[in-house]
Amino acid sequence: TQKSIKAYVDAEIDAGTATQIGVGQTWQGVTRALDGTSYTNSTGKPIMVKGQFHGDTDNHDIDIKITPSGGSEISMKFATSTNSGGGVSSNGSIIIPNNTAYRFTKSGDAVTSFSFNELR
């Protein structure tokens, strides 16, 4: 019937909305470490992670290691900065699926300050 079709379509829309990034989410400042500490997105939705990094010396690299639920860890460059005169900055962002672990590590010269925000 028309009523049952509408109910089915409405349920599918609600189910899709529940898993879309940005729907019902807000940007939040979060504390994250650069020492390999693991964090897991268990929000029920994908999240976006954004990081900002600053240093006084020539360069730094920030890597992110991601492990999907039941999957193998992958590693990729999250942010990088090079500068021959010091005073460097870099930024990175990535979408983390639900039930996925992620962690950050750094290499290169010292990162003097950093911050993270997540759309969750």
The backbone outline, from C-alpha atoms, is elongated
Task: Name the helicity range.
Answer: 10-25%
**Percent in strands:** over 45%
Mean pLDDT across residues:
88
Q: State the separation between the terminal residues, measured CA to CA.
A: 38 Å
Structural class: mainly beta
What can you tell me about this protein's structure?
The protein is mainly beta and 120 residues long. 14% of the residues lie in helices and 53% in strands. It has 1 helix and 8 strands, in the order H-E-E-E-E-E-E-E-E. The strands form 2 sheets. The chain has a 4-stranded antiparallel β-sheet with strand order 1-8-3-6, with no helix packed on it. A 4-stranded antiparallel β-sheet has the order 2-7-4-5, with no helix packed on it. Strand 4 and strand 5 form a beta hairpin. The termini are far apart. The model has no long low-confidence stretch (mean pLDDT 88).
